[in-house]
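Appendix B, record 7
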Amino acid sequence: MPGLNFLIQTAIRMKRHIISIAALFAAISAFSQVYDEKGNFVDTTAIYGERTDSLDAAVFVSRQSGNYLSKVKEIRTEVISAAGLCKMACCNLAESFENSASVTVGFSDAVTGARQIRLLGLSGVYTQMLDETRPVMRGLSAPFGLSYVPGQWLESIQIAKGSSSVINGVECMTGQINMEHRKPTDEKPLFINGAVMSDTKMDLNVASSLQMGYKWSTVILAHVSGNLMSHDMNGDGFMDEPEMLQFNLSNRWLYQADNGVQVRFGVRALQDSRLGGQMLQDASGSKVLYDKDRYSVVRENASDVDPWGSDIFNRSINAYLKVGVPLNEDNSQNIALIADYSYQDMDSYFGSTEYLAGQHSAYANLLYQNVISDSHRFTIGLNGTFDRYDEDFSRLLWIGMPSEVSHKGVTDLANAGVFGEYTFHAGETFSAIAGLRGDWFYGHGFKVSPRVTLKYMPIDEIVIRANGGRGLRYSTPLVDNIGVFSTGKKFVGSYNEHILEDAWTFGGNITCYMPFGASSNTYLSFDYFRTQFGSQMVVDYEFGHNEIHFYPLAGKRSYTDNYQLDFSVDPVERFNITATFRYTDARIELHGKGLVEKPMTSRFKGVLNLQYATNLNKWIFDFTASVNGSCRVYDFMKDLKDQDGNLLYKNGRTPVYPLLYAQVTRRFKGWDVYVGAENLTNFTQKNVILGTKDAGGLVNPRVSSFDASCIWGPLMGIKAHVGFRFTLWKKA
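Structure tokens (predicted):
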């Protein structure tokens, strides 16, 4: 019974690792002295910035909304605070956006568990992900990167829409999502969070912030998660989620010299394995899962139990260094260096398809900042990125007869740029940021990218913002669209090419703060953004029968218009209501079809979040309801029918569906205990696995019509969770 043995061994390994990690961090914290000789603890969000006492910051977060729009930022920025990250299980970053209509998160396919975000109606590859201003989740790490950031490692997330600063690179197209981790200066020698889901997924996080004198401090972050059992709730023969096991360890350091020099550095290592796909039974009734070593696209004996599936093993290591050097006493002039290196290794198998790849990535940013006065400042600098992909790809399909394609080689992608950014402030009434970059792209020559941001406050209750600019990125077609591996379709065209994608995004926002409610943070906000591509890699499911075509946009049109309305109010003390509605109109010109609505892109999303806390926050009640709009399905999905013979997609569109989330938290001294549930409506997408069915009524994954990548809705029904958070505070 190999399947049962695998589960037993996995459970034993997880138990041992969980106990060992918890014991290690408890021991470290118990014997560490965390006294500061000057009596204060400070931190910065980047190299130099606003210095904030960590205890005051924690108290402030407990009084604010989980999601709110920043009033002080020049660019339209939504903040998910530490309180917002505790509203639901939030086991990882992908699960932290359920209260936001700005960001939509969905599955790339029904097999691998890969999650992808959408911002301004476009795939997350067009959103620049930042780890405290360092670009992350690029290339091979993008498909699963959201699940590699534990939510309880973070103290906040900032979602900035549109073209932002030129300082962090040129890859920002639809916006930036910046993650702020727990700080070395936190007054929390030990934090432990554990959660268990009803689908047997378990999650454990440990954080320890230690101050070793006044100059040195460090934070150690550990994570282990996985699920012990696989499920097939809809009876289609495929696991609803893959069997997973992840280990994640990070160590971050801060050194603060007496002369104002700051040095930040850290390392992180990760290992993740996931096994998904068909879950069949052999003649003895034992469960049989996909085995990459014995799988064959052609079965000599039709009665052989040889499940199709995916087997993915990811490993990565990252190291970074940030140095800030003040050039005068008031730090109005400083030099900063940011350097980052990461290696990502992904061994992935999908049936008889192999994609074995490694990626070396390096990023460096050298900048000089001069604050001339309260009204004028500028930043100039040099930065660049380098990526080396070592790929071994082969794909064997059954299309009338066995058909194989393969590719093996090393690809270098690089850019280096010079930038300048000028900021003007006219008090609190008006501010403007004008930036310009010039980048040399390997194989594509020199490109210029201007960006501008404006903010105007005619009165204190009204904030008007506008911004626009250009973004550029190399496409990585197979990795950017990993769901294509979970199909039996033939790849046609430029799937191995790395064209330079080019987009302009511009838009604006107006926020009105209103004088009612129990707090001063009652607001109504409206924003509009448009993204228009000059160059784009198109992945077309509709140009050929049972084929996926990859081709450049080549002068055709591709654009997205995005409208959003936000409202937040505290009608009474400790009760917050936040409502958001987003409408998206995404269009693209496809071969043979002309300008059409982009397929599988939701038209709208509405979110209502209610949070109530009793006196002293002893009990916290959270409720979130969302309504998700329809999207245009691919042409080959229009005639699909359910078991009763009714069309699944009337008028070629998916149904509108609701999702409900609820959680109750009880807070004790140093402890939080919470229980909650997701998808209380129990809504799931029907027929997630498409294709010709065999004699047993299950989809045959060995034929060209097989497709598990057409995902638009939830794959699993109601899921309950229970968890705890333990915080040990530094003694006064």
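Remarks on this record: The two ends are 56 Å apart (CA to CA). The chain has a mean pLDDT of 87.
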